[in-house]
């Protein structure tokens, strides 16, 4: 690119350190300009590691960047992303995009009003193997159902085990958006949550209805001590079945592919994308409906 996008990073936790910061700092179309975090010492450490400037004042950081990438809990991200959009900044958003449908709607309105680009980090959607499978499904047709499982012990041990929002909201909010997004892309828009249950062990099980009549089932859990963890998606219909596993392209490479799209959107003036903030709102509504159906 002729000119790199100046990107500010909000958040300095494990995922920001492993994915966002190195991805932005090493991408040819972006430069990591600044880092803001709720823990100033963490912001300073992460910024120093990548040649960026730590900020204690979020508004001050906004004045120095073209775009903001968020890696904080949804309850923190929603209001801060609205503020960034109102300031005319392009957005890279984590999922869920907010803590509620109401805040997500306000965020979509702010992004639309500002005319800025936005992408949601639905990691597997930016993997080449996922794009290849979805293209194949569209070419073939005849798919009537699917089964998706995202099972791990992430809340028991590892870098995300001390994440308060994940313990509070569980697998539905953390890995649910990934599962719903892929099922939606594969079978058609999810129009209803037919049933949803939450067990004492933190296992979510759901039945979804899709436009066109297809149905799918989902199992989500972050508190089962399985090694290795697994995530898979199987689509079936009149032409057999196809399976996608989560053992393909590394997450950092997927994030780099996201940044390819993001930079292209900003430089071309494009604000629409299949994984933009409106997609985030759609997924937020599915989460909300599932929680209400389960009485959770």
From TrEMBL:
Name of the featured protein: Predicted dehydrogenase
Residue ranges of domain Gfo/Idh/MocA-like oxidoreductase N-terminal in the record: 5-117
One family name in Pfam for this protein: GFO_IDH_MocA_C3
Keyword annotations of the record: Oxidoreductase
InterPro entries reported for this sequence: Gfo/Idh/MocA-like_OxRdtase_N, Gfo/Idh/MocA_oxidrdct_glycsds, GFO_IDH_MocA-like_dom, NAD(P)-bd_dom_sf
A molecular function (GO) term: nucleotide binding
Originating species: Lentzea xinjiangensis
PANTHER family: BCDNA.GH03377
Limits of the GFO/IDH/MocA-like oxidoreductase domain: 161-240
Record-annotated membrane-spanning stretches: none
């Amino acid at each position: 690119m002729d000119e790199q996008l100046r990107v500010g990073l909000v958040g300095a936790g494990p995922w920001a350190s492993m994915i966002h910061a190195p991805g932005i700092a090493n991408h040819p179309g972006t430069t990591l300009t600044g880092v803001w975090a709720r823990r100033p010492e963490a912001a300073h450490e992460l910024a120093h590691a990548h040649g960026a400037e730590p900020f204690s004042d979020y508004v001050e950081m906004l004045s120095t960047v073209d775009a903001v990438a968020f890696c904080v809990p949804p309850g923190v991200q929603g209001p801060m992303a609205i503020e960034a959009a109102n300031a005319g900044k392009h957005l890279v958003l984590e999922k869920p995009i907010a803590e509620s449908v109401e805040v997500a709607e306000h965020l979509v309105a702010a992004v639309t009003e500002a005319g800025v680009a936005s992408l949601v980090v639905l990691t597997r959607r930016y993997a080449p193997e996922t794009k290849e499978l979805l293209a194949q499904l569209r070419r073939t047709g005849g798919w009537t159902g699917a089964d998706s499982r995202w099972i791990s012990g992430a809340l028991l041990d590892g870098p995300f085990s001390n994440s308060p929002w994940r313990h509070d909201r569980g697998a539905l909010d953390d890995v649910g958006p990934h599962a719903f997004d892929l099922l939606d892309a594969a079978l058609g828009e999810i129009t209803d949550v037919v049933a949803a249950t939450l067990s004492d062990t933190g296992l979510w099980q759901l039945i979804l209805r899709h436009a066109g009549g297809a149905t799918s089932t989902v199992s989500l859990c972050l508190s089962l001590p399985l090694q290795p963890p697994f995530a898979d998606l199987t689509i079936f219909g009149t032409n057999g079945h196809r399976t996608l596993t989560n053992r393909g392209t590394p997450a950092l490479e997927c994030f780099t592919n996201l940044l390819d799209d993001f930079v292209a959107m900003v430089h071309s003036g494009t604000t629409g994308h299949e994984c933009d903030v409106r997609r985030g709102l759609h997924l937020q509504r599915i989460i909300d409906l599932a929680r209400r159906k389960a009485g959770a």
